[in-house]
Structure prediction request, 236 residues.
Amino acid sequence: PHRLALLVPFRERFEELLAFVPYMHRFLSKKRIRHHIFVLNQVDHFRFNRASLINVGFLESGNDTDYIAMHDVDLLPLNEQLDYGFPEAGPFHVASPELHPLYHYKTYVGGILLLTKQHYEMCNGMSNRFWGWGREDDEFYRRIKGAGLQVRRPSGITTGYETFQHLHDPAWRKRDQKRIAAQKQEQFKVDREGGLNNVRYRIESRTALNVAGAPCTVLNILLDCDTSETPWCTFG
Prediction:
């Protein structure tokens, strides 16, 4: 019996979390998917790093889970036909471009992506060089290809752009889209060196939590940044 580690990169989205945890627990339980929700809460003073948080979640998720979902906190699946089962044949992109309410380019793998732990290790996880919003999943698409894996997507889903509820309010939640100095050039490169093997972090605390009766684990994570390597990790 497989067990899913639902990895949710997080910072200051409390209202969304209150909606997300009980909703996903109900959704997955109804589909009889054994799961554990990990809220990966970045508590340092660097810019948000979604990819590094997912790397940390992978490393901290324990041996009782054998596959992961990288899952945005502001994206809720509305169609119960969506498959969250063990993605044995390769990475399975639940939030595919034909269904995601915002992103429709064909190499998109963000939002919700399932991988076996073995396949994630074959990619050496995600690059730790992406501070601020965006691009880390585009680089990860190249890693998937480089590892000889094929991205699969849902078929037979007829709900189109109504397949997901997107909770993000851009007027209320400004995204950190600043591009600083060399970051502009760097964001289009493939990071051949880093990933799971060199993510630098400390777990400040690990808390078991119930949100409206739904269990999850909150990891308060302090990421570390080498400012000589990625000077754009700071807000300065």
Notes: Residues 47 and 183 are 13 Å apart (CA to CA). The chain has one domain: 4-223. The chain has a mean pLDDT of 91. The domain at 4-223 is CATH 3.90.550.10 (Spore Coat Polysaccharide Biosynthesis Protein SpsA; Chain A).
